[in-house]
Amino acid sequence: MIEKLGPIFATAVFRTVAALPLPIAQQIGRFVGWLLWCLPGSYKTRAAENLSRAIPGTTRASIRKAIIPVGQLFFEMPYWWVRRDEQSVNRYVDCDNWTQFQEALALGKGVILLSPHAGCFELLGPVYSSRFQSTVLFRPPRLPWLQAWIVKMRSREKLTMAPANQSGVRTLVKTLKRGNTVGILPDQVPVLGEGVWAPFFGRPAYTMTLVERLQSLTGATIFILGAKRHTKGCGFTILHKRMDEPLSSDPVEAATQMNAEMEAMIRQMPDQYLWGYNRFRQPRAKDDR
Known about the structure:
Elements: H1 2-18, H2 22-38, H3 42-54, H4 60-82, H5 86-90, E1 93-94, H6 99-105, E2 111-114, H7 124-129, E3 134-138, H8 144-154, E4 159-163, H9 166-177, E5 181-184, E6 195-200, E7 203-208, H10 210-218, E8 221-229, E9 236-243, H11 251-267
Parallel strand pairs: 1-9, 2-5, 2-8, 3-4, 3-5
Antiparallel strand pairs: 6-7, 8-9
Helix pairs in contact: 1-4, 1-8, 2-4, 3-4, 9-10
């Protein structure tokens, strides 16, 4: 029953929220984020601990300011997942230089986009793919119907979803060898055996080695991206940095380089990072299923 009703219900909810003007959806999200701040919970506790350890001198007000945007993110998400026309997708987003991506793609070796879970990272795929063919890596949920629904909602003419498994990795390699773009959120904890321990805000964090392997196989250019949210419905700015030096061939050094770049991007919007994510946990064992 859930396999049939789940996608219908989820689609109805997303389309209802997506029908709202984005500034109104953001205001509702702020209220939900405020409730998250007021109520006790593991996310709030972990966010306070991680933010305080990462940025010394963090105040209670700073922690509150970092938790409220979580609600905004979830109410912004339907806007980007539902819309398909380029004008609507780009309406609230500003980027000062798309030419740099064209120049990198012209080299024929592909482009790797890396973004932390900061700001409205959900807009990066739809906005970028409104211009360039791309494939985004995602962690599939355990429920088969939910995975199929996510792929259907997020895919579009120039955007393909690749699950975080061996099949998905092969898709990423093929995408890069065709000279196209792949997108990865590298601040997730990979499964045991697919990462190394490297510093992240001064603490050991199990970090994926996939990005270094992809670059060494293809010679792709790496860009660090972030989607910084402005206040009160004033839109977003895409922050970007091209990594001119390739990642080290040593996995630990490469992971350290990558984490340093993630830190630098997060420091440009520290109140918009998902500090409640359990970034410093032990990796889980690989599920062969």
